[in-house]
Structures are given as structure tokens and as C-alpha cells.
Amino acid sequence: MKKTSTRLADGRELIYYDSRDDTVRDAVDRRPLDPIVTTSEVRRDPLLGDSVAIASQRQGRTYHPPANECPLCPSQGERLSEIPDSSYDVVVFENRFPSLAGDSGRCEVVCFTSDHDSSFADLTEEQAGLVLDAWTDRTAELSHLPSVEQVFCFENRGAEIGVTLGHPHGQIYAYPFTTPRTALMLRSLATHKEATGGENLFDTVVAREVADGSRIVLSTDHWIAFVPYAAHWPYEVHLYPRRRVPDLLGLDEGARTEFPQVYLELLRRFDRIFDGRDGGKEGVGESATPYISAWHQAPFGSLEEFEGVNRDDFALHLELFTIRRTSGKLKFLAGSESGMSVFINDIQPESAAQRLREVASS
């Protein structure tokens, strides 16, 4: 992998990640951009104890542009985009409309490919491996920023999720605090560790899924994927490396090499759940499955409030889920979910796992 860092016309950082070591990236951003001014701030809710990012400047962000005006495609001639070069493998740059900025963290965009009409599932294993390298590198770099406590790499796919740019891309949020969801995991870890005399809760969860077997979606030498026992979403898969590590930096060579094959297979199965192929029960011609793919990594900040827990107790894992519950129908977060944070799942996790096994590539 070759990494080339440059600056856009308004001062934002942009980084090219290339498969070839001899690739030259010297294109200049020719757009007449003013320096970015953000009003992002983080406010703490005294009742719930969580934090809310207030980012009013995002109201003016680019919204469903036509394909020939996509800001994530490479620049061509006088059609200038966020990427100055005329081609790229993987690109990461600071978001022009960030939810978090300055002392409140940082937001970055990750472009998986220059092909506008592609998706992550269409990437080759080499391309997917390069994205993993970019995620890992950005996790390492962002963790050193004084305002950052947690790094979150994720992808939103599909208009149903709220995506406003169709080009295949993801994002990285570098939070100035430990997120509420991670804090819940850490508290559960601490409670379980004390109650069992040192047993790791993540290890226990994975071991129970392996022993049960009914919710396993796929397993390899270095990775295991399953629908969790108490899945929140209609189709939800958790992907764990078999060797527990706290973050992407901890993955060994075997896990890194095998990841592209495993992850691409999971994404392709998600695209086949509803399309009626392979004897499927759902409607033929369904649009690409909307999903969220989220890496959970240990925070880089202090864990003192989670007594007895350290970073190495946390288990890196990826959570992949769709809000589509059946062909043409979405799972909405209504009264119980949005008002009380109590999820109601319409699909039995064991049935979801069975469906995801049925649509395997081979």
C-alpha cells in the first residue's frame, strides 16, 4: 500500500491509498473554495448522561446530486470534485460538512472505489483489503489527536438509510468521548468480569454461539459470523475475529488476509436476501439491500469509570444489519424503539441465520 497525503483548496486533508507503490498523486484542487467554518459543538444531556453533536452547518450539505455532478467521483477536465486526481483506488478526506470538528472531534469520508455505479460488494478482494488498510491507518492516526477518544469506521448504504450520495463510500467519526453504546458494552464487561472471577463476556458470547450453532452464518479459520441471540434488527450479523483484539490495529496477518473474502461474502448474501435468487422466498427485482456496517473498537481514552476493565478486554467486531424486514417493507424505529429504546424484532434470529446460509455463494 502507498499512502499520499495532500490538501484540498479549503485546507482539508485528503489521503490517497494506492495498491501500487509507483503511483504518483500530484493533482491540485483547482476549485475556488473558501476556508471551512464549522459550528459543531457537543452538548451533554443531564438526564440521559449522553452527548449530542450540534452541527447546524450540515443543513447545506450536498443532497442527491445527479451522477454527473457527484462530488466523490474523480475530477475530469473542468468537472471538479472533492478528489482532484482523475482516478483513485481508495481516498479518505475530511468531511466538508462535518458533524464533529476541532475540539469536538473529526469526521472523514472514505471512498471505496472511483466507480460511481459500483458498491462495496462489487469490489475485488484486493480492493477490499486496501479499504481495510485505510480503516486501520486512519484509526491509528486519529487515535493520536488530543480531542479523540474513540474511532468509528462505518458505512451507510441505501436511500432508505438516509444516504444522500449514491457513490460507494463510508465514513469515519472520531469522537471526543466514549459513545453510549460502547459504554454499555464496557459496563456489561465489568459486571460479568467481577461476577465470574475474570471471565471475558465477549469470549463467552462467541463461545455460546459456536456451541449452539443455530445462528452461525459462516465461519473460517480467522473469523466467525453469527446472528446474535437477541438481534435488534430483522437481519443482523456480528463478525468477530477468532483471536480477540481491541481494535483494527490488533488484527494479525491471517485475519487481515482472510477478511476481504469473508466480508464480501456477507455483503453479497445481504444483497441476495430479498431478490428471489437461489430459491429465495422474497420478491424478485428488489432493490439493493440497504444496510449499516459498523466497526466497534475499544476507546483510546481512559476506562477508569469501568472498574476492572482495560482495552484488551474489549473485542473488535463488525455489526452489519439492514432495516428492511421483508420485500418492500422497512423496520421503522417507532414508539417503543425511539421513545424507550426497547427494540421489537419481527424476525426470529434463528430464521434470519437460516436465510443467510441459504443464499451462500456456494
Q: How many helices does DSSP assign? A: 6
Chain-averaged pLDDT: 94
Approximately how much beta-strand content do the residues carry? 15-25%
Uncertain spans? 277-282
Strand line-up of the largest beta sheet: 1-2-5-6-8-7-12-13-11-10-9
In whole angstroms, the N-to-C terminal distance is: 31 Å
- If you compute it from the alpha carbons, what radius of gyration comes out, rounded to the nearest whole angstrom? 21 Å
Largest sheet: 11 strands, antiparallel
Q: State the share of residues found in helices, binned by percent.
A: 10-25%
- Number of DSSP E strands: 15
Report what the structure shows:
- By secondary structure, the protein is of the alpha+beta class.
- The chain has helices at residues 125-143, 180-196, 201-212, 253-272, 335-340, 349-358, and strands at residues 2-7, 13-18, 41-44, 51-54, 90-94, 106-111, 150-157, 169-175, 216-219, 223-226, 235-241, 291-296, 317-322, 324-326, 329-330.
- An 11-stranded antiparallel sheet has the order 1-2-5-6-8-7-12-13-11-10-9, sandwiched between helices.
- Helix 1 (125-143) crosses helix 4.
- It is globular and about 60 Å long.
- The model is unreliable at 277-282 (pLDDT under 50).
List the topology elements.
Elements: E1 2-7, E2 13-18, E3 41-44, E4 51-54, E5 90-94, E6 106-111, H1 125-143, E7 150-157, E8 169-175, H2 180-196, H3 201-212, E9 216-219, E10 223-226, E11 235-241, H4 253-272, E12 291-296, E13 317-322, E14 324-326, E15 329-330, H5 335-340, H6 349-358
Antiparallel strand pairs: 1-2, 2-5, 3-4, 5-6, 6-8, 7-8, 7-12, 9-10, 10-11, 11-13, 12-13, 14-15
Helix pairs in contact: 1-4
